Every structure is written in structure tokens, then in C-alpha cells.
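dumping the sequnces here before i forget
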Amino acid sequence: AQTVTQSQPEMSVQEAETVTLSCTYDTSESDYYLFWYKQPPSRQMILVIRQEAYKQQNATENRFSVNFQKAAKSFSLKISDSQLGDAAMYFCAYRSGGGSQGNLIFGKGTKLSVKP
Amino acid sequence: DSGVTQTPKHLITATGQRVTLRCSPRSGDLSVYWYQQSLDQGLQFLIQYYNGEERAKGNILERFSAQQFPDLHSELNLSSLELGDSALYFCASSVGPLTGSSGNTIYFGEGSWLTVV
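..and the predicted 3d for all of it:
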């Protein structure tokens, strides 16, 4: 069974600085997808970024980028120029590929605080 | 706005009662998922439907049931409610058959807050 581990329950960053959230996963599959979701205090689940395992290039979305290390099964999220609105719980998630249409497997989350 | 619509947004009910949560997936999405998030807890997968058929089951209690209708909307029924069922219930949807990388993304609704008193 696949597992997702987020080893940092809480992180803090100064506004305008850069922070990296860690995520590791365990799988025997070769085809899969990885995601970071943001959950602000409103509790809405917002997709931040997606990475296809078959792609070597790391995904980027504006100030958000990932460091995908497939061999190490690591998928970290880097937030550049942190803003107060980035304060939220961040969940790393795994989804099987290959037509299995499986559900998301989530880590326990990292609570990010942004200091003004 | 993810395009996934959930109703009601908030619900307060008494123990022992039954409630129904409703979800309309994004236009064109065939798969619907239900997740439960208790206070300070992670997201627990409950059940998945694809085009009207149950596809996968997670940690769903026997007191809970769900279905997906021909128009693809889904309902989650929670019965004999207990205090511990108080949680945020998310519906999410995805395209289903992989039709490109975008089909692999699961989009979430805003959730239905259930409080059992």
C-alpha cells in the first residue's frame, strides 16, 4: 500500500522569505501523480501544484515549485516570496496512475505560519 | 471556484438522526469521491463512485452509505449519528478515465460542516 509522510507538523516563515515543506512517499508503482493541496482557515481544499511521475522536469506554478526526486521518493514544495495569504495547512498527496482512477492518499499535513 | 458544489454548507443535527449530503461534480467529471476530515485530523477517504458504480471503499462506517445518480450527482447518507461523526465532509471529483494529465487531478468542493449535538 502507498503511504505519504510529512515529517514537519508545523513550519514558520518570515514574509517575503522562502520556505520548503517536505514530503516523502512509499510506492512500488512506476506510474503515479503527486499533488500539494493548501487548506486555509476556511478549510477549503485548494490545489497548489501537480507533478506527473514520468516527467523529469519539476513543476512550477508562480511562486510555488517542487523538488521531485523520484529515486528518493521525495516531493518537497518550495514557496518563494512568502505572503501572509500563504498561511495554511499544506497536504501532500499521492494518486496512482495507469488508469486505476484511484483516490488520493494524503499525508498528515504541515501547518505553515507566515510572520509579518 | 473548483466547480464542485456541495450542499448544505453547514448542518447541525442531534444524535441518532439521519442526514444527507449532496454533491454535484464538475461538468464532465465522472468520478466522485467522499472524504471526512475531523477536527485536527487528516483527510480520510470514505468512498468513490465512477459513472454510477461504486469504485473503491475506504474507511466508511456501515451507518454511512452513498450513491451516484444517472446525472452524476452524488449523495452521502449518514445515519444513527453520533457525536464523533461531527466533521467536515468533502466531495471531490475528477474526469475518470485518464484523458491527459489534467484527468489525474481531483478537485474538491468547499465541504459540508456537520455538527452532531
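The mean pLDDT of chain A is 93.
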